Amino acid sequence: xxxxxxxxxxxxxxxxxxxxxxxxxxxxxxxxxxxxxxxxxxxxxxxxxxxxxxxxxxxxxxxxxxxxxxxxxxxxxxxxxxxxxxxxxxxxxxxxxxxxxxxxxxxxxxxxxxxxxxxxxxxxxxxxxxxxxxxxxxxxxxxxxxxxxxxxxxxxxxxxxxxxxxxxxxxxxxxxxxxxxxxxxxxxxxxxxxxxxxxxxxxxxxxxxxxxxxxxxxxxxxxxxxxxxxxxxxxxxxxxxxxxxxxxxxxxxxxxxxxxxxxxxxxxxxxxxxxxxxxxxxxxxxxxxxxxxxxxxxxxxxxxxxxxxxxxxxxxxxxxxxxxxxxxxxxxxxxxxxx
Length: 339
Fold this sequence. Notes:
- By secondary structure, the chain is of the alpha/beta class.
- Strand 9, helix 11 and strand 10 form a beta-alpha-beta unit.
- It has a seven-stranded mixed sheet, sandwiched between helices.
- It has 13 helices and eleven strands.
- The protein is elongated and about 70 Å long.
- It folds into two domains: 111 residues, 2-Layer Sandwich (Alpha-Beta Plaits), CATH 3.30.70; 227 residues, 3-Layer(aba) Sandwich (Rossmann fold), CATH 3.40.50.1000.
- GO terms for molecular function: L-phosphoserine phosphatase activity; magnesium ion binding.
- Pathway: Amino-acid biosynthesis; L-serine biosynthesis; L-serine from 3-phospho-D-glycerate: step 3/3.
- Belongs to the HAD-like hydrolase superfamily. SerB family.
- InterPro entries: HAD-like_SerB (IPR050582), HAD-like_sf (IPR036412), HAD_sf (IPR023214), PSP (IPR004469).
């Protein structure tokens, strides 16, 4: 007999449409906490889809009482010990309908020692650790932000090849002053996602190594690394003109695309002697899906609908610190970690 956990979190950034095609999507139900109705609906879903699954303990995470909790954890017993149920339940249409109807994110994980004992966490940068897509902000300097942003949006949804789209967008940056990264850092254009500092502080206190693996650019990745106390930063390099004054629009070296992120994740884990089951990957775009699947646990944070559907788990929240609920920590424990 084996156990797995379901962490249910009330989404604080409501999804505007279901992450799947449905002829008649249900009407979302507003709630300020995870009500008995929601818990009963989830229990019914589990027993309806898999009659041999048993719901065991409900634990409030965000508050001391289940009656007010916006994040709860339930232990689910799999008497067959097959592991098949958790994989099938993740892809179940009934589960997706439940999430959309009640505006709930459900993260399913094996209830093992590796769940809380994370040792390496890797992050995407743009729209994950920071709130902007940096290449779009660079494009504003030469008046092509809208054009570049449209390509970025399509690439993040997985509609375009990332490598090709990056080269085409970078080409539009020819003539941008080489001081642009310093400008973006100093004028307040680049802002950290709420909870980024707290999450990284908590993870460092837990002994985790942290990395940013970005399809963006190295100067800002290094700044993010320094600001958040990360251990590694890998991103792309833009060529600078011979006189040092402008960007040429050429990307140098290997592009940090989806496959490269997965390779870097494994290389860092090997270097640090970390079991892949203790690695977490957090991102928001299609470019992050490969590393999410490679890691022991992957989280799509405020991601596009297609990415949420394909990622190992998803979280729609106003703050990155809520990632800690997925590891089983309570609000009181999180406060202790970030204090």
